[in-house]
Design goal:
InterPro entries: CMP-NeuNAc_synthase, Cytidylyl_trans, Nucleotide-diphossugar_trans. One of its GO terms (molecular function) is N-acylneuraminate cytidylyltransferase activity. The strands form 3 sheets. A 6-stranded mixed β-sheet has the order 4-1-5-9-6-10, sandwiched between helices. The protein has a two-stranded antiparallel ribbon with strand order 2-3. It has one domain: Alpha-Beta Complex (Spore Coat Polysaccharide Biosynthesis Protein SpsA, Chain A). The protein is globular and about 55 Å long. It is an alpha/beta fold. It is 25% helix and 21% strand.
Length: 228
């Protein structure tokens, strides 16, 4: 696929609560967002990489790290209840109004510092224009056939019925790891990502999948990064 037709969006609002200012907090000596920016710059043209942020300091850091800053995200799209779809469509609309038309959107969240450009390249190879999305996943340790339960009439029942005895025998299940989303722009214009049905997975290992969302995640991530 031609990377000239790809818009890369790195969303980085200023109001992170689990880890305050996490997008520019130093992680192993570098602003967290730097890991994602450097990975994107290894693959995509600089002009195709967009930082979507409501925060002047984050925008300044991103510019210092080599990106062109095109706009500031409006406050109405930077609240705790703002949806990813609205943020992405805002970016797409901004570029379309400037005459840049893309057919594919790559969403890279800054909280995945162990996701490298090689992961992104491998995921891109799985993408085809008739898909809604290619998304990065990891195998889940929790399984609805084995150790996930729902409460029914005051009693716990397995979330998905099956006659499996050993964990090794249950079907594999996957969870999004938040690292890579390769999205058909026509699809996201028509419906939310939760309504996509043509989705292909790109599986990543547990360490590469690590998403820094809490202070505990951060501490574990720093321990791991010191051993890389």
């Amino acid at each position: 696929m031609s990377y000239n037709n790809v818009l890369v969006v790195i969303p980085a609002r200023g109001g992170s609560k689990g880890i305050p200012r996490k997008n520019i907090k130093l992680f192993n000596g570098r602003p967290l967002i730097d890991y994602t920016i450097k990975a994107a710059l290894r693959i995509f043209p600089r002009k195709n990489i967009c930082i979507s942020s409501d925060d002047e300091e984050i925008l300044t850091v991103a510019e210092d790290l080599g990106l062109e800053i095109s706009f500031k995200r409006p406050d109405c799209l930077a609240t705790d209840t703002s949806g990813s779809r609205e943020v992405l469509l805002h970016a797409v609309d901004f570029y379309e109004k400037k005459g840049y038309v893309y057919d594919t959107l790559v969403l890279l969240q800054p909280t995945s510092p162990f996701r490298t450009f090689k992961h992104i390249e491998r995921a891109l190879k799985l993408y085809e224009s008739d898909l809604d999305m290619v998304v990065s996943v990891k195998e889940s340790k929790s399984n609805p056939y084995y150790n996930l339960f729902e409460e029914e009439q005051g009693f716990l029942r397995k979330s998905k019925k099956g006659s499996f005895i050993r964990r090794q025998d249950v079907p594999k299940v996957y969870e999004y790891n938040g690292a890579i989303y390769i999205i058909n722009i026509n699809s996201i214009k028509e419906k939310d990502m939760s309504d996509f049905d043509k989705i292909r997975k790109f599986e990543m290992d547990e360490i590469s999948s690590m998403d820094l969302d809490t202070p505990f995640d951060w501490k574990i991530g720093e321990l791991l990064s010191n051993n890389f």
